[in-house]
Design brief:
Strand order of the largest sheet: 1-2-6-5
Structural class: mainly beta
Distance between the termini: 16 Å
Strand content: 35-45%
Order of helices and strands: EEEEEEE
Shape: globular
Radius of gyration: 15 Å
Helix content: under 10%
Number of strands: 7
Number of helices: 0
Amino acid sequence: LVSDFSYINLLSLAATVSGGNLTLSWPGASGAYSLQQTPVLGPSANWTTVPLTPALVNGQNEITIPAQSTSEFYRLVLTNVPGNL
C-alpha cells in the first residue's frame, strides 16, 4: 500500500546562445519552478535563484541573460509541491 504519494515529472532545461546572450527554457505548463545558478558544482556549490521572471514564449518559459566568459551551472527547483490528492 502506497499513500501520500505525488508524481513529479522531471523537466528538461534547454540552453541556447545567440548574439552574446544565453536563453534558458523549460515547459511552460510545468508548475512553479525557479531557476537557480552556481559557478561551481560539488560540495562547495552555493545555488542562488536567478532574479528574473520567465517570459512565456510559444508554450515555453524563457529567461535570457548575458552569456558569461566563466562557467555557470543552472538547475530548476520545484517551489510549489502539489498537495495530497
